[in-house]
Amino acid sequence: MGAGFSTFSTQINLVTSSSSSSFLSNKTSLGDIPEGCISSILTNLDPPDICKLAKVNRTFRDASTSDFIWESKLPSTYQYLIDRLGDGLPSNLSKKDIYTRLCRPNPFDGGTKAIWLEKSTGGVCLSISAKGLTITGIDDRRYWNHIPTEESRFHTVAYLQQIWWLEVDGEIEFHFPAGTYSMFFRLQLGRASKRLGRRVCNPEHVHGWDVKPVRFQLSTSEGQQAISQCFLDEPGNWINYHVGDFVVENPTVPTKIKFSMIQIDCTHTKGGLCLDSVLICPSEFRERLKRF
C-alpha cells in the first residue's frame, strides 16, 4: 500500500508542476500591454516621467514617441513660437523633437531675446537681454559699458559705473499661452570676474543704492499695471527683482507689455550695477526665482 501511495503522490506532483509551468508561461508581462493603452497612460504624465518610462522596454519606448502625446505637452502657441524663431527649427521634426528643441534657450530678434519651455510643465519663458532694452546713457562709456561674461545666457551684460539718472525701458509683443506670468529684472551689484579659478566680485563702484529705492513697473495692452520698489542690496549675487504679474486670457491675441526700472533722484549718484536681462515666466515659478 505504501508503494501505491507513493506512486499516486508522484503523479499528483507531476500534474501540479505541469499546471504551474503552464500558468507561468501564460502570465502577461509589460511587453504584452498594447501600445495604444500605454500611450493613453503617458498623456497624463509630465514630460520627465514619460522619458523615464520610455526606458522600460521597446513598447514603452515606441509609445513615448507618439506625436499626439507630445503635442498635448506643447503650449497652445507652439506654432507661433516656431514661426517667431524663423529658420531656427527644421520643418521635419517630430512633436517630441520640437518639445526638446524648445526646451533649450532659442535666440531671436538678432540674439537680443530668447524663448524656451520649462522642461517639467511646458510653460513658456522669455528673456530680453540688456542689448534689447533702452538704457539712458548707454552710448556714453563714462556711464555704461557692455562687458562679456559667462554668467549670462546672452554672454554680455550692461555695467553701470556711475550715473545720476537711471532709466531702463523695454517693451515686448508676444503670443503667450493663457495663464499668469511674472516679470523680473536680473541684476547684480558689483562686477564679477575669475581669479585663480575662483569667482570674485569687485564692489569698487557700488554706491548710492541705499539712499532711495529703485522703482519697477509694467503695463499691458489690456490695461493691467503693476508697480514695485525696493533697495538694491547683496553685492556679488545675481538677484531676480520682481516687477509684478500679469494675466493672459486670450492666447490668439498678442500681449504687448511695457516695463521699466527707474531711479531718477538726482540728489546723488549711483553705480556699480550689472544689468543682465528681463525675465518673463509662469508665475508658478515666482517664489523659486525670488530666491536666486
UniProtKB/TrEMBL annotation:
SMART domains attached to this UniProt entry: FBOX
Domain of life of the source: Eukaryota
Sequence ranges assigned to domain F-box in this UniProt record: 27-73
PANTHER family: F-BOX PROTEIN PP2-A13, F-BOX PROTEIN PP2-A15
Protein name: F-box domain-containing protein
Organism: Coptis chinensis
